[in-house]
Specification:
CATH superfamily: MFS general substrate transporter like domains
Number of strands: 0
Radius of gyration: 21 Å
CATH class: Mainly Alpha
Strand content: under 5%
Number of domains: 1
Shape: globular
CATH architecture: Up-down Bundle
Helix content: over 70%
Structural class: mainly alpha
Length: 425
Amino acid sequence: MDVTARETISSTGVASEWRQGWHLVALTAIGITCAPTTLPVYSIGVFVGPFEQAFGWGRGETQTAILFSTGLGVICAPLAGWMVRHLGLRLTILPGLCGLALSLALAGAMTGALWQLYAVYGLMSLLGAGAGAVGWTSLLAQRFDRARGLALGIGLSGTGLCAVLMPQIALQAMLLWGWRGAYFSLSAFILLLVFPLAFMLLPRGAEAAHSDENVQVRALGGQTMEEAVRSRHFWALGVSTACIYLAIGGIIPNLVPALTDKAMSARDIAAVLSAFGAAIVAGRIAIGALVDRFWAPAVAAAVLIPASIACLILDGSLEPSHAIVAAALLGAAAGMELDVLGFLTARYFGLKDFARIYGRVYIFVAAAAGIAPLAFGHIYDVSRSYHLPFMISAALLVVGAIGLLSLGRYPDVANARTPRHAARA
């Protein structure tokens, strides 16, 4: 078969995947705005000031809540992987959305005890586990093959949408009804918009319920979860991802305070945040398309090294234009990691036990993203400066890039297709 014929078959397969799965990509983009590791991180900055005025909580105390909403992912991500494997996507994602909405409503009923803040943010992770990245990534990884990178990039670009949309919803509601109304509004967004869409569009029947699970698992190529965790690739991918998330997860909640400390105006800070959010979306889509064509670790490294330089720029005395460029470089790095993680999990371990393997790899994400805001906040409290956090982030991004490059070639076993894809080919 000549090159032109192969390209024609490939393009036909890609078009077929998009015809059958575009609505699931759109649903994922909306659904991931309400992931328990996404919504709390991007919205908590809105509540720092009101909590300080109402209860006297400091920055570090408030941001410690992220340790519970994100850090508990070390337990909840494997749980979500088990649920996808044994219950199916509908019975994983739909209860997770309801659980997150309930937790947000409970946050609106807090009376001022700091333990209540930590408890409700912990509930966001526990009750909302099914609505996290494991479920949404599994949905797209199982339904896309030739266009998997782009599908994951577009679908998971919902984190950028969350960065732009959720703080605005909370801010507008806060102006009208106070911080309690802000939490109730975020809960209503899930119940009135995201849940109905997921209920209508998520796969139903035997495919969703995995009623013939044993036949399906045997037909898919790749490793079991037990085999994967004993491999070098698993630990290289996990440690590299942890380094990246420690860097990005520490910067995100501290970016506004760091810029404020440099006497940057509210208007300029808003421009920096807009550049950051836009770069998350653009980075996910562009990088998703690139990893379908090029070796994904090299693509990731080409994004992470400039992001490391951006940390050095932000640490210096900077003009607003420099901060905007630096924020865009960091946004691209923040935007690429979840979809690249899902893509690499599928390529190095296959689809045979994807949800459970991804759930285990996600432990590194949850631990790093949960620890980072607390650690960076306390470093600031001790040093009264963001110099050391920015230096640490710059180094971690370089280490993460080197770790991903160490993964080496894609194993052949991970190139296996689902029976549906094989039938079309």
